């Protein structure tokens, strides 16, 4: 009996050893970048993440400090149809919405017309138009409850995207960038949307992507409870039956250094990764690169004039500028296998 037991034991150990050495039984490595070509930006991001999540690396970052910030418009949401979503929505609200267009203040009408002249005729927007738009938008939606405004944004987002076939405004999302979100989440990163657009517009647009509202920072207007009137919130107790409404008072336009201030106030930590697409994101990138942890910043350039509406010459010039500043550059034309997914193509802009 003892003689028989020893060979069986040896055979059993051999089976276990064979199972352990069989690579086919090892967990398959997930490819998070199936919509990307092999490129510098993707490789740089993967090398960075592998380094800072390796406990043996001198650059290891604790999970609670793995903070990534993303601009929205032009970074993972389309902005070239032919301008920002929030600009087009204001133009619609003021010049076409039957419920509002006849009562819009003159300065708000002027701002909406300037957007229309830019979109339809190529007339340059006035200097510092981002602030002018922010003030006008605060007035145009004043009095709306947050639920009403959310519904309004989503209704406009459901309209066909001008300049595209097979896509609504709300579906105008760069599919490869969604894979970046998934990759970072799988590696213990927390990411925030830090946008110059209205915070509540951003929340409505990213909700279908599974991004929680507390991960969104944007332009803000002052809110009030419905019956509060002009009384200060510190002196007024909101009732159970009340809801919150938007006012016409702009608090902050979340661009440039304001992004850094808002990140500091709302997140309380310096990001280690930053993603953007324009000069309005440079302050956020530089803040990130000041981190004592190893950090990295990425700029996306709209250089694909076949699958999107783009000024390739301008984009390439910006790409050179961003590289010189120490940022990694993501090329939509060279790095993305697709932009919006199958079935979406560009067409000439159409205006009624």
Tags for this model:
14% strand, single chain, two-stranded antiparallel sheet, seven-stranded mixed beta sheet, alpha/beta, globular, disordered N terminus, 352 residues
Question: Summarize this, please?
Answer:
Helices cover 39% and strands 14% of the residues. The chain is α/β, with parallel strands linked by helices and 352 residues long.
Write the layout of secondary structure elements.
Layout: H1 2-21, H2 40-52, E1 67-70, H3 85-95, H4 106-121, H5 129-140, H6 146-157, E2 164-165, H7 175-186, E3 190-198, H8 199-206, E4 216-225, E5 244-252, H9 257-266, E6 273-276, H10 282-289, E7 296-301, H11 312-324, E8 328-331, H12 332-335, E9 345-346
Parallel strand pairs: 1-3, 1-6, 3-4, 6-7, 7-8
Antiparallel strand pairs: 2-9, 4-5
Helix pairs in contact: 3-4, 3-5, 4-5, 6-8
How would you describe this structure to a colleague?
It is a single chain. The chain is α/β, with parallel strands linked by helices. 39% of the residues lie in helices and 14% in strands. It has twelve helices and nine strands. The protein has helices at residues 2-21, 40-52, 85-95, 106-121, 129-140, 146-157, 175-186, 199-206, 257-266, 282-289, 312-324, 332-335, and strands at 67-70, 164-165, 190-198, 216-225, 244-252, 273-276, 296-301, 328-331, 345-346. A seven-stranded mixed beta sheet has the order 5-4-3-1-6-7-8, sandwiched between helices. A two-stranded antiparallel ribbon has the order 2-9. α11 (312-324) links the parallel β7 and β8 (328-331). The longest helix is centred in the N-terminal third of the chain and has 20 residues, at 2-21. It is globular, with a radius of gyration of 25 Å. The N and C termini lie far apart (93 Å).
